[in-house]
Amino acid sequence: MKTFVIGIGGVTNGGKTTLANKLHKSLPNCSLVCQDDYFKSEADVETDERGFKMYDVLEALNMDDMMTTVNSWTKHSKDAETTRQNQNEIPRKSEDGVYFLIIEGFLLYSYMPLDNVFNKKYFLTIPYEECKKRRSTRVYEPPDPPDYFDGHVWPMYLKHKDQMEKAERGIVYLDGTKLEDDIYSFVYADIRKAGLHWGSWCQARSVSLAGIPLCCNWALLQLTGRCEERQHPTAPHSGSQPIPQILNPGLLGGT
Ligand SMILES: Nc1ncnc2c1ncn2[C@@H]1O[C@H](COP(=O)(O)OP(=O)(O)OP(=O)(O)O)[C@@H](O)[C@H]1O
Ligand SMILES: NC(=O)c1ccc[n+]([C@@H]2O[C@H](CO)[C@@H](O)[C@H]2O)c1
């Protein structure tokens, strides 16, 4: 089984959906899960002391349902591969045989059950002013009440980003003010680059699935010197030091 799970996280209006849709169209055998599809109904979302509906926290989302979807995709990919092998189909080139899953959302990297699912994590950032401007053109259901951006959305984003950075686990930051096509081309090339070492990568993943801690795979990859993939087998509790990844400084987000 060859699967590759891509996280497209980031700030509200950072361009996650735009990027995820482009990748979804261009990657073969690719599925897409959008976190926004798992919001609870308005009545089930808590209200804070100022009267703001607290949409920008994990509790506003049915994350268990989202995980069920992700796990079901993993199972289906596995079943599809088994069926193909049972039918003695000619094995395709390794890259062709990969099943891609894109998970897109604004609160991906502080939700622990998803953490080991990702093979590659991207995070789009845009500055406060740009974010506020883009958000003001959007109409959510329910629409943002006055002062919602400053009173709830942006503070929750900063909190989430802070938590994420404290536990940095191989996230590639993207500057969401760059041209849409440039961001897409960079990410697409980065994913293809990861695919170049597909064989060893899949081996590492199946070892982890067999129950050996991911940190062992991490060590294995370091020993074999496959630097490009160091960030993949992320081990949140392994105690290993985060390895900064600077693939394309021009696209790095700094906000
Ligand atoms: N690279 C870009 N440069 C300028 N504008 C962009 C860029 N990418 C997306 N946009 C615009 O920003 C707005 C938000 O984009 P998009 O819906 O992709 O963001 P998002 O992160 O999915 O937002 P949210 O999750 O909050 O709904 C849209 O109007 C989109 O056209
Ligand atoms: N989709 C929804 O139900 C909903 C309702 C109200 C607000 N939001 C906003 O969506 C963004 C994530 O894409 C968050 O910033 C929410 O505030 C979504």
Automatic annotation (TrEMBL):
<keyword id="KW-0460">Magnesium</keyword>
<dbReference type="GO" id="GO:0019363">
    <property type="term" value="P:pyridine nucleotide biosynthetic process"/>
</dbReference>
<keyword id="KW-0662">Pyridine nucleotide biosynthesis</keyword>
<dbReference type="GO" id="GO:0050262">
    <property type="term" value="F:ribosylnicotinamide kinase activity"/>
</dbReference>
<dbReference type="InterPro" id="IPR027417">
    <property type="entry name" value="P-loop_NTPase"/>
</dbReference>
<dbReference type="GO" id="GO:0061769">
    <property type="term" value="F:nicotinate riboside kinase activity"/>
</dbReference>
<keyword id="KW-0418">Kinase</keyword>
<keyword id="KW-0547">Nucleotide-binding</keyword>
<keyword id="KW-0808">Transferase</keyword>
<dbReference type="GO" id="GO:0046872">
    <property type="term" value="F:metal ion binding"/>
</dbReference>
<protein>
    <recommendedName>
        <fullName>Nicotinamide riboside kinase 1</fullName>
    </recommendedName>
</protein>
<feature type="region of interest" description="Disordered">
    <location>
        <begin position="230"/>
        <end position="255"/>
    </location>
</feature>
<dbReference type="GO" id="GO:0005524">
    <property type="term" value="F:ATP binding"/>
</dbReference>
<comment type="similarity">
    <text>Belongs to the uridine kinase family. NRK subfamily.</text>
</comment>
<comment type="pathway">
    <text>Cofactor biosynthesis; NAD(+) biosynthesis.</text>
</comment>
<dbReference type="Pfam" id="PF13238">
    <property type="entry name" value="AAA_18"/>
</dbReference>
<keyword id="KW-0479">Metal-binding</keyword>
<dbReference type="GO" id="GO:0005829">
    <property type="term" value="C:cytosol"/>
</dbReference>
<dbReference type="GO" id="GO:0019674">
    <property type="term" value="P:NAD+ metabolic process"/>
</dbReference>
<keyword id="KW-0067">ATP-binding</keyword>
